[in-house]
Amino acid sequence: MTIRTVCKVDISKPASEQPTPVHNRWHPNINSVATVLPGELFKVECIDWTGGQISNNDDASDIANVDLSQVHYLSGPIHVSGAEPGDLLCVEISDVQPIPGNEWGFTGIFARNNGGGFLDEHYPEAAKAIWDFEGIFAKSRHIPGVRFAGLIHPGLMGCAPSQELLETWNKREAELISTDPNRIPALANPPTLKGAWMHNASCTHSHGHDAARTVPPREHGGNCDIKNLSRGSKVYFPVYVTGAKLSMGDIHFSQGDGEISFCGAIEMAGILTLKTEIIKNGMALYGAKNPIYLPGPVEPRYNRLLTFQGISVDEAGKQFFLDATISYRMACLNAIEHLKKFGYTGYQAYLLLGAAPVEGKLAGIVDVPNACATIGLPLEIFDFDLTPVSGGPIVHNLGDCARVVGKKPSK
Amino acid sequence: MTIRTVCKVDISKPASEQPTPVHNRWHPNINSVATVLPGELFKVECIDWTGGQISNNDDASDIANVDLSQVHYLSGPIHVSGAEPGDLLCVEISDVQPIPGNEWGFTGIFARNNGGGFLDEHYPEAAKAIWDFEGIFAKSRHIPGVRFAGLIHPGLMGCAPSQELLETWNKREAELISTDPNRIPALANPPTLKGAWMHNASCTHSHGHDAARTVPPREHGGNCDIKNLSRGSKVYFPVYVTGAKLSMGDIHFSQGDGEISFCGAIEMAGILTLKTEIIKNGMALYGAKNPIYLPGPVEPRYNRLLTFQGISVDEAGKQFFLDATISYRMACLNAIEHLKKFGYTGYQAYLLLGAAPVEGKLAGIVDVPNACATIGLPLEIFDFDLTPVSGGPIVHNLGDCARVVGKKPSK
Amino acid sequence: MTIRTVCKVDISKPASEQPTPVHNRWHPNINSVATVLPGELFKVECIDWTGGQISNNDDASDIANVDLSQVHYLSGPIHVSGAEPGDLLCVEISDVQPIPGNEWGFTGIFARNNGGGFLDEHYPEAAKAIWDFEGIFAKSRHIPGVRFAGLIHPGLMGCAPSQELLETWNKREAELISTDPNRIPALANPPTLKGAWMHNASCTHSHGHDAARTVPPREHGGNCDIKNLSRGSKVYFPVYVTGAKLSMGDIHFSQGDGEISFCGAIEMAGILTLKTEIIKNGMALYGAKNPIYLPGPVEPRYNRLLTFQGISVDEAGKQFFLDATISYRMACLNAIEHLKKFGYTGYQAYLLLGAAPVEGKLAGIVDVPNACATIGLPLEIFDFDLTPVSGGPIVHNLGDCARVVGKKPSK
Amino acid sequence: MTIRTVCKVDISKPASEQPTPVHNRWHPNINSVATVLPGELFKVECIDWTGGQISNNDDASDIANVDLSQVHYLSGPIHVSGAEPGDLLCVEISDVQPIPGNEWGFTGIFARNNGGGFLDEHYPEAAKAIWDFEGIFAKSRHIPGVRFAGLIHPGLMGCAPSQELLETWNKREAELISTDPNRIPALANPPTLKGAWMHNASCTHSHGHDAARTVPPREHGGNCDIKNLSRGSKVYFPVYVTGAKLSMGDIHFSQGDGEISFCGAIEMAGILTLKTEIIKNGMALYGAKNPIYLPGPVEPRYNRLLTFQGISVDEAGKQFFLDATISYRMACLNAIEHLKKFGYTGYQAYLLLGAAPVEGKLAGIVDVPNACATIGLPLEIFDFDLTPVSGGPIVHNLGDCARVVGKKPSK
Questions:
Q1: What's the domain range around D355?
Q2: Phi–psi pair at B5, nearest 5 degrees
């Protein structure tokens, strides 16, 4: 009657020595580590996306020096009996939990020259916040004044690409890179043997030259970082290879829409409870080219969203045409400015927008030339009231997040 | 004890003959039509954004031939006693209602050569849906199978710009236009006397040459098309001129995030009940450069969102860099494809995504090179079940939306 | 295209002179005032339940001297074409609104010797609060510190009883009365010509001797005072006579579960928008003996319910057996005691529990000998924080509700 | 950094051999098993309320023969440093989880002659349903057609009574019992050595003669069976003895309001994560005589409640005076009748109302002589649509729940 754990991890060991082998690239030829039947309930354990590179301390040096060629370490692939190319694989995320005894996670701002992030022009240095889990809640000694229920979810999940789809990815991304090959941060990351790990050295060596990196979300889903893919959600994934070869990882205790600081979610190791169902020929029957999902019924009820707007005019006053990315960027900067008035440093506020359950929305996308995007902060998660009042904000003593020790931080 | 109506409309009359004069441009020199005190509850009536150009019939010719130089007709400006530049003007939207006896609205797809929209490359022709209001619900003879509670709101609200801010707008938009001045649809729309109306001919003539068009949302708010700005919301608007000069209009019975078909909301005339409060020097105290808002407590509880993803790779397979606009566009196309499998025409589905309370979100914005955006359709509003099941969708007989009569429509 | 109003009222006129006749008793022989078709959208206007006996002032004398033999004035009956005994009549409450220009309501505590209420042993005097409607919100000069969105609904709705059902009601209630015929307040109220009104003097005289009083909810629904029967709800009513003969009234802007002070809701005149559907033979098909309902999708999102418990041991310490009425009574007294610590008088708190959207629940009903009932107060509706904190409550200056002028009130 | 588990259980062992001693009576002299500091996060493991008497099988004999003198087995008491009589002890239920590897629970209907329940006159026989947990969801082979997210909670929690309070309880309950001492089921259960267990034989023997039974909720909270006391809730408990002596147990994976079949919740062993805070002198400061609680932010979003009404007229047609217990009983019977039309047996439906997250409310409690109570069933949890439609219900093949094997069950 006990639920079978098909992928096991040992967080005291390096990624290359996990009880069930892990991988950090997408390739159709990575062997399955387990087989499940449709309808079967099973568990999958996952290490954190960096493979244990980040420590529970007050020094952001590990974030500054992170080796991003290794990410994301994934559990799987899992062979689902009967799944064939063209099917939709419905995966119910029946539960997501931290690993008992390991109730903490981290949020990072990567340095601009090693990873970067959404606002790296404003916040170019590495920073870190450690979060402690108090049951369903997270709080951080690095970002006081806020505590919230986690909308816990896997940031990354998807089926293996076919060889043909893999080649499409590599080709189109190479074309983008070629438009500005020396850009820092890079426009995209091509396949590379460096840092690659596909269960063992032999598989890694065989497929590392064309195995796709895991950072971008793609047609198969992958690193979608959809914060609402939490307990009880169902996802309908396109299947490209026999057995589907489902992989997953990048567990987040919580995340804000957009995961703006790149390592913005509360990253952790965790355990998924899953159940699958096959919809034969579902891709054609429903015209599905990307995953479709239904959120679960237990999302936190945070309704009082103090919401900031942004339009597609950048900091320099330059007008862009319906550029929702710039709109959201400006909305985030507006929210950070507001938080700073209450005593947070900009780095704290930036970390918070990545980690807390903030809502990022596309309000208007057709009113030329300005797209309007919004970011909503749930008032219920703060110890103090963020709404504007006559007399102005009360400034709190909120310290700072973790920085690289020994280096003088900017504000 | 009766609540004062400070702006009255007569929907049987043209925009130029309204009981309280209306205007369709932004300019600091448009005279206020009324004065209110902070804390005072008052009502504002508004005509629809086109000034009555669209009729409740089954012919989309009026949409095809709409005169967009006239939009948006706004009520106001309203002088708020005591408001001064630098303040934040908190406006509570205490209620929004249709005009009794006029319980209908329209959603349009503008023709590509006269207005266009988010998906005009795929849906270049004019189309229309008429919605009937059944109390809090809307349904359409042109889009059967769906009925939903309206998240009723003003699409457009904001304070008058200062002369300086107005010049900033005009300058930056002119620069954008100059990069491709002959584009259809245009990149932006410069000030023009054609179609302008600012209370009367004299004011129009004096200020029409530099008065800003109302389509784009800007720093002051304006046409933000935020669907959650519904009953009970509070908005904190920056104030740029003495008395704030608050204007508003573009009432929507409902809208989907993004309002993708441009005339995508359920457009109508309506009545706002409002209340204001001044936060002295609020712009500096809170670092506010754009409006901030808090949604109200009575939003419809539609939680089962069937959600479609899009990434920043366009229909041709071209890879873009973290372009959330393309991601949302692809998510919308995915949702439309799904709806078509159940019997809707593409035009019906496109109209529906603009009008129904769909959620448009920014899931991931940092996973180079792909931004991930999502659009969520509330399953509760459909007569049939949209979730993927084994065996595939049941095709319903759902007719079509209104097209230009006498012209053979594309599907 | 305009929606037909089938019952019209004029709140400046007495109940006996309404444009469409009203009635205040249940009897199968009251003639229908209008006929509607299934599927037809129509409006029904209603006067307040007392027929205008209560005034918008600061004197509770009208409450003290209210004539309860007249209540409740109802609009209808409405004949629904095709409805027959044994059917279920599905009524959608498409909308509920106050009458324009009349945006206020009242909550009363009846004197113990004229009506009484749930806590009349503790609060035996008449008291009143006037509420002003600010769009979707209500606030009261008599109960400062609180403002909330109305969960607006008809307190009373149902189909006419058959003669046989009417006799059952009269018989069983007479038996109850006979167990303590002189009790004050009475155990139940028998038919009486005094105060009766059934459209006109002739009908009143003919049927007043056995027409049932409207206060109790019964098999047909009637005065259920279900606060969640708000905008967008559907109710399935048993039909007992040809044409259903649907009547309704007792419009509430808001109410707490239990409506504890009897005149506890925010009482008002109002306008219903309705739509019906007939389920032939539905009573037998579904085994329905009482109405069934589905709440609508736009209920206020008040989730932070500070909840007080009560058990079935009364104030004197006497133990009762699973008596949920006593449990709820004790929970209410506990909530009132809490509110008093913040500065409210007991009468204000009692009024507030009847009028605000508080949740009254049956927690445990089997744990002999104590039933556990709870009452939850939404924290979001108060200007100050009601949660217990170290140091104790801050006492606010909250005045008092309206009392009988010239009489020294008890606290 | 690991969270301390202050009470450990071993579900393979009998109640008397648990690693941390358990108890099944309330008495101030039961020694504390652990000490915690205010603000400290800690875990408490609990066995199921019967101490393992019920098995995961298809035979209800264990339910029929259950020894109720043993219930409820509780973990604790826990000494909270600094808590003194008169304080309020705020307990945050930071998390509640099943015991890993033991993902199942049971719901039972006790036989009328051994425990009984809310509807035992209609359903006098023992019955059982076993529930399997699929992550956050529960489903039962004995009640097909339904699956729901658990609103997991401790059914029982509270601080030890003072000797004086204990004597008050015993006295008042004895008085009730004396009114009908031979009633089956009993009106209340007096202290008894039989079945008592207070950590060890010595303590049991010393205090068994006056230690209170755990079934009823009382002033201290105790067996309140409040289904919303789930993850993230806070409860403010009165403190009567030094150190508070907090005990808890009776973990429920889910429960309907009222827990109508007595063993109506989904009973299980489980793990609580808790955190305490002391509000000095809080009982007097807030006038608190019973616990106060605030529900957590992650309750399942089940909003479409098909709601059945009941009034205080019993099955025989007898009229009672504002008796909410009878009203709720009639509402439950109405809901069961509805469910039976879809293919459930009455016993299945009765079990379901105890176990599923149904809402039991007090609608009207003052409309003499009828109280109106309601029970709402969330439509989202059923595989088929429960709403009434033309043509009537579709009957499903839903089998039956577990009965006593070898005995012919009634329907």
A1: 305-381
A2: -95, 110
- Residue C12 near chain A (CB below 8 Å): no
Residues B227 and B373 in one domain: no
**Residue D276 confidence (pLDDT) above 90:** yes
Q: What is the pLDDT of residues D151-169, one digit of tens each?
A: 999 999 999 999 999 999 9
What secondary structure does DSSP assign to B350-364, as a single string? HHHHHHS--EEEEEE
**Could you tell me if B132 lies within 8 Å of chain D, comparing CB atoms?**
no
Q: Is B157 near chain A, with CB under 8 Å?
A: no
Cis peptide before C77 (omega within 30 of 0): yes
Q: Could you tell me if A153 and A50 lie in one domain?
A: yes
Domain final position from A294, A314, A345: A294
Mean per-residue pLDDT, D131-144: 98
Chains that touch A (3 or more CB pairs under 8 A): B, C, D
Structure tokens at B411: 């599907």
Same domain, A46 and A193: yes
A98 and A120 fall within a common domain? yes
In a domain, B406, yes or no: no
Q: Find where tokens 């043993």 sit.
A: D70
Interface probe, candidates C1, C137, C381, C382, chain B, greatest B C-beta count within 10 A = C137
CATH code at position A309: 3.10.28
Asked if the C-beta of B304 comes within 8 angstroms of chain D's C-beta atoms, the answer is yes
ipTM computed for the complex: 0.97
- Is C129 domain-assigned? yes
Q: In this complex, do D380 and B304 lie within 8 Å of one another by their Cβ atoms? A: yes
Q: Are residues B102 and B184 in the same domain?
A: yes
Residue A324 shares a structural domain with residue A212 = no
C-beta atoms of A88 and B388 within 8 A? yes
What the block records as the tokens of B406 is 């006498």
And the tokens for D403?
A: 């009965």
On whether residue D64 sits in a domain, the answer given is yes
- List the subunits that have 3+ CB pairs under 8 angstroms with C: A, B, D
| Whether the Cβ atoms of residue C209 and residue C169 lie closer than 8 Å to each other | no
Q: Does D150 touch chain A (CB under 8 A)?
A: no
The amino acid sitting at A399 is G
Does B395 contact chain C (CB < 8 Å)?
no
Separation of alpha carbons D213 and D72, rounded Å: 8
Q: Which helix (H) or strand (E) holds A324?
A: helix A324-340
Instruction: Give one word for D135, left, alpha or beta, with left for phi > 0 and alpha for psi -120 to 50.
Output: left
Q: What is the CATH number of the domain that holds D284?
A: 2.60.120.580
Interface test with D, best of C367, C380, C389 (most D CBs within 10 A): C367
Check whether residue B320 and residue B187 sit in a common domain: no
Q: Which helix (H) or strand (E) holds C303?
A: none
Q: Is residue D389 part of a domain?
A: no
B–C interface: beta-carbon pairs under 8 A: 85
Q: Is B171 exposed, middle or buried (0-12, 13-18, 19+ CB in 10 A)?
A: exposed
Which of A234, A267, A294 delimits the end of a domain?
A294
CA D95 vs CA A138, A229, A291: distances in Å: 12, 20, 32
Check whether residue B146 and residue B261 sit in a common domain: yes
Report how many domains make up chain C. 2
**Per residue of chain C (411 residues), what is the pLDDT tens digit?**
689 999 999 999 999 999 999 999 999 999 999 999 999 999 999 999 999 999 999 999 999 999 999 999 999 999 999 999 999 999 999 999 999 999 999 999 999 999 999 999 999 999 999 999 999 999 999 999 999 999 999 999 999 999 999 999 999 999 999 999 999 889 999 999 999 999 999 999 999 999 999 999 999 999 999 999 999 999 999 999 999 999 999 999 999 999 999 899 999 999 999 999 999 999 999 999 999 999 999 999 898 999 999 999 999 999 999 999 999 999 999 999 999 999 999 999 999 999 999 999 999 999 999 999 999 999 999 999 999 999 999 999 999 999 999 888 776
